[in-house]
Structures are given as structure tokens and as C-alpha cells.
Design goal:
There is one protein chain. The chain has 800 residues and is an alpha+beta fold. 26% of the residues lie in helices and 22% in strands. Strand 31 (782-785) and strand 32 (791-796) form a beta hairpin. The strands form 9 sheets. The chain has a 5-stranded antiparallel sheet, with no helix packed on it. Mean pLDDT is 73; it is low at 1-90, 123-197 and 388-414. It is elongated and about 95 Å long.
Length: 800
């Protein structure tokens, strides 16, 4: 494909010896940084929990096996350090001391190290890490402190791994966290697997207090928080849920089943209502054996629960736990929670409730600090020929006059560069074909006839109801020019309808094509076989329900994703399957083409989203970080970013260039099922099973609005072509229209709000709701705005 140039300044397209060009692999160790004041996070999801990997092209032609491992590169000449077995005879205290010395050495605290060594009367050669700086594994302070916490936390026992501090070899290797040589200052190699090593994950629960005291510890903390000042109570109440979970799991792991059951029954009613589904899963874990291989359990253990608390509230908590000498709770806070401390006023209950609810707490403030290029790319300059027939056809004299300024405004819009836009060549995009240019001209002509929507001018809604859809409608998509509609069904078929008088035709057979004059003007018409003309085409190939469908911008291709773990690319010229992309091992819930074509994204039950190119059978990027299924995926209008909505109740924004997670949005209280970007690329709207639609400012990484009204899952969201109206479709059989201009006009994005997350959402859903349109008994699966701002909605009639 000509789209991928060989020389790029920022994104060089790496030409591989065998196989087509692809995007560069992501940089290692680029995760989002840690926020200040919290405990260091060194688990597999450390630093924002985003791991991206590029798979190698080529291979054996079978199912691609993308590697999801990010590894830092060793400096030249550095020999890898073998992870030697720890000294069997070394007592626990000595190992702890060695770990502390190792940490001091790597932090360049020479004086403290010397003083400690003299005091402990340790010989120079006995200290781990005393080799030359080039040979030592300097995995950074983070890894060493994590090592220290593991050494002190895990009591020797059958399930606890030995602390990985080498004795006689004279160098420390941190096995399980980082092995091999790592460049100074970089975090070591972190390997992500589908399931973390269960014994290592559970070992933290081997340290235990008196099981009969757990209820007393929890009750004591609960009493303290409930009796604290109002301003601190709301913030400290966030501790209840993560502490409850970890204390319960600790009791179960240590086989105190009766105490665990009693603890659960006594306190599970105190938790917030939006954690009920998680608690239901938790209540089924009643024996140690149940914990092994349980995804929910591993999620809680491997990802630190993030709490955002003001410094005053944190000091109050710390003082209380130290006075009471409540080590059990303090250990859990340090081991399993990440407390993101900010300076300033504590947040109110309402402010906290708006942001919490996800599987791993809130997002760290650091996770939303990186710069995002949310502006639109410059449109190519295309001359729009004036259509005389259209002008003559209109009786109104003012019509042609109105048209010209509109045309000029379109032209001038494309000449100005958006200051927030990414560089034009940041990622390689396909070049425009002649057919694309013709389509753009048609689009511009349609734009001149577009209805300007607003509170006083609402769009008409045309609803496509799928009747007798006994196969079960599971996905719908409409082409950009609204000429075709595709449905994915539970019987594993994909059906394509023409919604214009023009019927669907396939290309003629090869023998007939050879007779056609290739130079004739209407060659594209002649190659079509009139005998095959029909309003409906059925595509067979999947072996499971089809959950996602997406047309390419040029209407030549259709993508479908299925429970069978594949994404298929279909030709709309021949109505046959061209490629089956095999990368996901589990059902693929959604897929979507880039607005520029060529690239597409998919997300599924394996908790990752993958970025593909149509001419590569392996993914170019793997976006890993969600803690549950990726339910929906969307490309940003400039194609440089991908948004994913997950059953872990978070939305993430990923950078296509390097695979990094650049935004984490928390606030939904249920799995997310719909996403849409505003046409200007600045805002994101998300819908979930909680029936709420949340609005986000991408540049500042803040929630800026909440639209309440739906009573069931919001399955579809779309902005009008000019961004004035947001349409939402739900399982409650309604389409609702919201005033997007008003929702975004009073957005507070001052520095204080951005820094602390003190968001104040106005309760103005009823003012923003412009209209509610009910269907008889049809859940709204899909919404689409035509180029003239007519709303098309689709769903399958479900008799009561």
C-alpha cells in the first residue's frame, strides 16, 4: 500500500526483510508515572498498568502468537546477572538487611549504607550488589523497595517463595520482578501473561494476624471513620471496600473459613451498592482452592486499588492506625492500596461518588497528565465544482448565496492547522484514492444541505426495526453515506442490506470480465453482474454469534467480530471473506475501522484491545491494561488514538503510535457498552449498564458532565455531524437527544480542578434533555447521523 512511506521523521516505517511495512514497536518502560505520596507500585500493572507490544510480521502462517512482553534494553557490554538461589542458611533478618543495603546502594545513599554496614559488622564481600556498576542489576529504587516489602511481608512457609536476594555471588537479582541486565534508571522487564503466577500472587496472604481479631480491627476502623469530622469521613470511607475484600481473602487463604464467613456476613452490607456484583463473586470464594485461577481474585491482588485522599485525611488515618498499633490494616494499606495524596481541601461525598466505582478504584492523577493531540488533522484541499443543476433546481433566491459562504468556510477550515492536532505524519495514513476524493466532494455537497440542529430544531429519526429476527440481532452498522446497513446475528451470519433503490451486485466471473473493455468510462458498472442483484446479501464464515460489525470508510469492505475469536474482513464487491484475523483467544466483542480506513481495532474477553492493519495478519499493537473484558472500541477522529470501554468500569485512551495508555476515566458504576467522540475530537461520551451517559474532556482528562435519564444499558451513542446534539439509544427502548453545546459550554478546567480532581457536576440532566422517543418494544442497538443530520436508529423487535 502506498500509504506507508519508507521515510518518516517521527514514525519511521520499519521495513522488515519479509513482509509489509508496519508501525514501529513501542518503547519499553514508558508507563504512566506514579503519583506522589503513595506506596510504590511494582506489580505487573505498575505505572498505569499499560503494556503494549508489537508482534513480528511473518511467521508460520498459522494462528499468530503475539508476545506481550515489554523489556528494557541492556546497555552495551553489560553481562546478564544470573538469578542465583538464596542462601539456605541465611536467617530472615539477614536477608532483610541485605535488601535494605541493596536499596541504599541503588539510591546512592553511600553514607547511610556505610553506617548500616559498620553497625551490622558485615564484611564488604558479603553484601549483595557489590560488583562493578556495569555488572550490577540496577533495576531502580522501585524494584528494590518492592523486594524489601516482599522480604519483610512473606513469612517462610510452604507457599511463600524465598526472598530473591543472592548471597555469595556478590550481586542481587530480583527474580519475578526483573531479571537480566537493565539500563540504569529503567524498570526491569515485566512480562504479562493471561494469568499471573498464582502462588506468587497469593503468597502475600500468607502473613496473618489473629483471625478472631479481624472483625474487631475492621469495626474499630469503621467506628473511627464514622466518628471523624464530616470533611474527612467521605474520603476515609473509600477504605471500607478494599480493606473488606483483602481481609476476607486473607482469612480464606489461611483457611479460617468460619471466621471468613462471619466477617463477610457482618460487613458486606456496609459496602456501596455499585460493588454488589463484585461481592457476589467474592462470596463464592469460601475455600483456599477456590482462589487459585479465579480472575477476580487475581485482579484484586495484582492491581493496587487506587484511593485519592487529601493529605489531612491521610495523616488522620495514619495517626489512628499507629496509635492503635493496628498493624494488620496498616499492612494491607501499604501492600495492596495505592493512596494518591493531594494537597488541598478534602473532597465531598458527591465529588467522590462521581469518580469511584471501578474495579481498581480511581485513576491515579499521573495517569491523565500526558499530552494528548485531540485536534483534527488538516483536510486535503479538494476543489468543489459548483453544481449548477442544484442551484437552478432551488426556487429560493437566497439559496445559492447561502451555499457559497458555506463552501468557502469548508475550504478555509481545511487550510488552518488545529494547534491541538498531531503532526500530519505522526502515524502513516493511507493516501486518498480518486474514489475517496469523489466521495469527499459528494460529502461537501451534502454538507451544504445539512440541517443546523439545536434545541429549536431537532432531527427526524428513522428507525429500522428488524422484524422476526429469530436469529438474534447482536450487532449493527451503517455506512457513512447511509446507503448500506449490516447486521450481525447470533446464528453466526452477517447480513448486508441496501437501504437505497440501488441493489447489491457482485462482480462478474473471471471469464466474463476478460470480455469487458477496460478503457471504457463506465467500466465500474460493466464489471457488475446484474443477475446477482438483490436487496440482501448473507455472508457465511463465522462459527459463533457476530458481536461487532464495521464498514470501511470507502464502503468496499466490512469487518465482523465473533464469539469464535476471529475478526473477518469481507469484500463488498464479491461478498466473500478475504481474511480471518486470529489473535484473540476468546470472543471478540467489538471491532471498528479507523476513519481513514486501513487500520482497525478489536476488543474482547481476553481483556486486551488489538490494533490491526488490513494487510497484516498479526496485530500491530496490543493495548493491555484493562482488568476485565473490553466491550467496545472507538477510533478518535484523527486516528491517532483508540478509546476502549471495559467491564472493569473504566474507559482508557490509547496512543496508536507507541501503545501507551494516555487516559484512564473512572466514574461508571457498571460495564461500559458504548463510546463516541465529538466531531471536533475534544470530548468523549460513554454509556454503561448503569444507564448514565458521562462526558469527558480529553485534553484535561476530566469528567465534565453526567446525563441521567435512561433506565437500562446505554448501547449506542452518536454526536450529530456538527456536534450540537448527542443521541443515546438504550435497552429501555428509547432514543434520547441531549443538548451537547450547553453540556460543554460551562466546562470548568482550571488548574486546581485538573490537579486535584475536585469536579462539580451540575445536576442539569433535565435541562439538557431535548427529547425522548420511545419504540413499541425494540431495544436501540445502533444510532447513526446521516450527512444531512437525519438520525437512523436500529434494533430488533422483541415481543414481550
Amino acid at each position: 500500500m502506498a500509504a506507508l512511506a519508507e521515510e518518516q521523521t517521527e514514525v519511521a516505517v520499519k521495513l522488515e526483510p519479509e513482509g509489509p511495512p508496519t508501525l514501529l514497536p513501542p518503547q519499553a518502560g514508558d508507563g504512566a508515572g506514579e503519583g506522589g505520596g503513595g506506596t510504590t507500585n511494582s506489580g505487573p500493572n505498575g505505572g498505569g498498568g499499560n503494556v503494549a507490544a508489537a508482534s513480528s510480521a511473518g511467521g508460520d502462517g498459522g494462528t499468530p502468537k503475539p508476545s506481550v512482553a515489554v523489556s528494557a534494553v541492556a546497555p552495551a557490554g553489560a553481562a546478564p546477572v544470573p538469578a542465583t538461589a538464596p542462601e539456605a542458611s541465611a536467617p530472615h533478618d539477614r536477608q532483610t538487611l541485605l535488601a535494605v543495603l541493596q536499596f541504599l546502594r541503588q539510591s546512592n545513599l553511600r553514607e547511610a549504607e556505610e553506617a548500616l554496614r559498620r553497625e551490622a559488622r558485615l564484611l564488604e564481600e558479603a553484601v549483595a550488589g557489590s560488583g562493578a556498576p556495569g555488572e550490577a542489576d540496577s533495576a531502580g529504587a522501585e524494584t528494590a523497595s518492592a523486594l524489601l516489602s516482599r522480604v519483610t511481608a512473606s513469612a517462610p512457609g510452604p507457599s511463600a517463595p524465598d526472598p530473591p536476594v543472592s548471597g555469595a555471588s556478590g550481586s542481587a537479582a530480583v527474580s519475578g520482578l526483573a531479571t537480566g541486565s537493565v539500563a540504569p534508571g529503567k524498570v526491569g522487564s515485566v512480562s504479562v501473561e493471561d494469568q499471573p503466577d498464582v502462588s506468587a500472587v497469593l503468597s502475600a496472604y500468607s502473613q496473618q494476624g489473629d483471625p478472631t481479631m479481624y472483625e474487631e480491627y475492621y469495626s474499630g476502623l469503621k467506628h473511627f471513620i464514622e466518628c471523624s469530622l464530616d470533611c474527612h469521613r467521605a474520603e476515609l470511607s473509600q477504605l471500607f471496600y478494599p480493606l473488606f475484600v483483602h481481609m476476607y481473602l486473607e482469612l480464606v487463604y489461611n483457611q479460617h473459613e468460619n471466621e471468613a464467613k462471619s466477617f463477610f456476613e457482618k460487613f458486606h452490607g456496609d459496602q456501596e451498592c455499585y460493588y454488589q456484583d463484585d461481592l457476589r463473586v467474592l462470596s463464592s470464594l469460601t475455600k483456599k482452592e477456590h482462589m487459585k485461577g479465579n480472575e477476580t481474585m487475581l485482579d484484586f491482588r495484582t492491581s493496587k486499588f487506587v484511593l485519592r485522599i487529601s493529605r489531612d485525611s491521610y495523616q488522620l488515618l495514619k495517626r489512628h492506625l499507629q496509635e492503635k498499633q493496628n498493624n494488620q490494616i496498616w499492612n494491607i494499606v501499604q501492600e495492596h492500596l495505592y493512596i494518591d495524596i493531594f494537597d488541598g481541601m478534602p473532597r465531598s461525598k458527591q465529588q467522590i461518588d462521581a469518580m469511584v466505582g471501578s474495579l481498581a478504584g480511581e485513576a491515579k492523577r499521573e495517569a491523565n497528565k500526558s499530552k494528548v493531540f485531540f485536534g483534527l488533522l488538516k483536510e486535503p484541499e479538494i476543489e468543489v465544482p459548483l453544481d449548477d443543476e442544484d442551484e437552478e433546481g432551488e426556487n429560493e433566491e437566497g439559496k445559492p448565496k447561502k451555499k457559497k459562504p458555506k463552501k468557502d468556510s469548508i475550504g478555509s477550515k481545511s487550510k488552518k492547522q488545529d494547534p491541538n492536532a498531531p503532526p500530519q505524519n505522526r502515524i502513516p495514513l493511507p493516501e486518498l484514492k480518486d474514489s475517496d476524493k469523489l466521495d469527499k466532494i459528494m460529502n461537501m455537497k451534502e454538507t451544504t444541505k445539512r440541517v443546523r440542529l439545536g434545541p429549536d430544531c431537532l432531527p427526524s429519526i428513522c428507525f429500522y426495526t428488524f422484524l422476526n429476527a429469530y436469529q438474534g440481532l447482536t450487532a449493527v452498522d451503517v455506512t457513512d453515506d447511509s446507503s448500506l446497513i449490516a447486521g450481525g446475528f447470533a446464528d453466526s451470519t452477517v447480513r448486508v442490506w441496501s437501504v437505497t433503490p440501488k441493489k447489491l451486485r457482485s462482480v462478474k466471473q473471471a471469464a466474463d470480465l476478460s470480455l469487458i473493455d477496460k478503457e471504457s468510462d463506465d467500466v465500474l458498472e460493466r464489471i457488475m453482474d446484474e443477475k446477482t442483484a438483490s436487496e440482501l446479501k448473507i455472508l457465511y464464515g463465522h462459527s459463533g454469534p457476530v458481536y461487532g460489525a464495521s464498514f470501511s470508510p470507502d464502503r468496499n469492505y466490512l469487518l465482523s467480530s465473533s464469539e469464535d475469536g476471529t475478526v473477518r474482513l469481507w469484500s463488498l464487491q464479491t461478498f466473500t471473506c478475504l481474511v480471518g484475523y486470529k489473535g484473540h483467544n476468546y470472543p471478540v466483542w467489538d471491532t471498528q475501522f479507523s476513519p481513514y480506513g486501513y487500520y482497525f481495532v478489536s476488543g474482547g474477553h481476553d481483556r486486551v484491545a488489538r490494533l490491526w492493519a488490513t494487510d497484516h495478519y498479526q496485530p500491530l499493537r496490543i493495548f493491555a491494561g484493562h482488568l476485565a473484558d473490553v466491550n467496545c472500541t472507538r477510533f478518535h477522529p484523527n486516528s491517532n488514538y483508540v478509546a476502549t470501554g471495559s467491564a472493569d468500569r473504566t474507559v482508557r485512551l490509547w496512543d496508536v503510535l507507541n501503545g501507551n495508555c494516555v487516559r484512564i476515566f473512572t466514574g461508571h458504576k457498571g460495564p461500559i457498552h458504548s463510546l463516541t467522540f465529538s466531531p471536533n475530537g475534544r470530548f468523549l461520551a460513554t454509556g454503561a449498564t448503569d444507564g448514565r451517559v458521562l462526558l469527558w474532556d480529553i485534553g484535561h482528562g476530566l469528567m465534565v458532565g453526567e446525563l441521567k435519564g435512561h433506565t437500562d444499558t446505554v448501547c449506542s451513542l452518536r454526536f450529530s455531524r456538527d456536534g450540537e446534539i448527542l443521541a443515546s439509544g438504550s435497552m429501555d427502548n428509547t432514543v434520547r437527544l441531549w443538548d451537547a453545546v450547553k453540556a460543554f459550554e460551562d466546562v470548568e478546567t482550571d488548574d486546581f480542578t485538573t490537579a486535584t480532581g475536585h469536579i462539580n457536576l451540575p445536576e442539569n440532566s433535565q435541562e439538557l434533555l431535548l427529547g425522548t422517543y420511545m419504540t413499541k418494544s425494540t431495544p436501540v442497538v445502533h444510532l447513526h447521523f446521516t450527512r444531512r443530520n437525519l438520525v437512523l436508529a436500529a434494533g430488533a423487535y422483541s415481543p414481550q
